[in-house]
Automatic annotation (TrEMBL):
Protein's UniProt keywords contain Signal: yes
Designated name of the protein: FBX21 protein
Organism this protein belongs to: Anhinga rufa
Name of the gene this protein is made from: Fbxo21_1
Pfam families in UniProt: YccV-like
GO molecular function: DNA binding
Keywords: Signal
Stretch forming the signal peptide: 1-21
Length: 233
């Protein structure tokens, strides 16, 4: 099979394009052969000139390369910006979540360390229904600390100098009964502010099933995971 170089391939392409070119020329410019020859020559010369300027010109290739590089650079820059933004956003979000988790398990009777043995001065137990002495709302105990375990800023706001001694008393985490219309869903309050209600089963709160599995007539029954934290309640 004969070898076809680039020049021969180009000539073949031009010859193959001549027939359809002549057909369209005859359709648009009449049947006069002399006129068709002139138009064909002009068309070939114009096509060749355009071809050499576009594909055989180093400057044209350099311009195309620069344009492609600029677009690629723009895409890369945008991609890097998106990448860094996503890393920053999700990394920041992850850090915040991690901080919240640390606070949740360290403060406001949400620590998962086992409360054993239970000190005798802790009067109330997880699962008991309470009423706030001053505000009158009811709720259920879901956790306790032997003393106030909260951020310092919260303690300073909660307890002015005249009530500083309350920080060293037992504190209870309460799911507030939604039926009271109190507005808040949870509270962290000292022992002296609550009293126990016996026989009141219904406490409406969306998290009740997460903490308790039922009611035994005197208090709510803790879920197994919660019972492990408060084995003596």
């Amino acid at each position: 099979m004969p070898h076809i170089n680039a020049a021969a391939a180009l000539q073949i392409c031009m010859l193959l394009s001549a027939l359809p070119a002549q057909y369209f020329i005859s359709q648009w410019y009449g049947t006069d052969s002399a006129q068709r020859i002139v138009i064909t020559e002009r068309l070939i010369i114009a096509s060749w000139s355009s071809f050499t300027k576009s594909y055989l010109n180093l400057d044209a290739w350099a311009d195309c390369l620069k344009l492609w590089l600029s677009k690629t650079r723009t895409c890369l820059n945008v991609g890097l910006l998106i990448f860094h933004f996503r890393n920053w956003y999700y990394g920041e979000k992850k850090t915040k979540i991690g901080d919240n988790e640390a606070e949740t398990h360290s403060y406001f009777a949400e620590s998962t360390h086992v409360r054993s043995p239970k000190p005798e001065y802790i009067q109330f137990s997880v699962g008991q229904v309470i009423v706030h002495k001053r505000f009158g709302y009811s709720g259920v105990i879901v956790g306790w600390d032997v003393n106030a375990n909260a951020p310092e800023e919260w303690l300073q706001h909660k307890y002015p100098p005249a009530k500083q001694d309350l920080k060293d008393t037992p504190h209870y985490r309460i799911l507030i009964n939604k039926a009271n219309g109190f507005g808040k869903s949870m509270a962290y309050i000292p022992e002296e502010e609550i009293t126990i209600i016996m026989g009141l089963e219904v406490v409406h709160h969306p998290d009740m099933k997460a903490y308790f599995s039922g009611y035994d007539g005197s208090k709510y029954i803790m879920q197994p995971w919660l019972k492990k934290i408060y084995p003596h309640d």
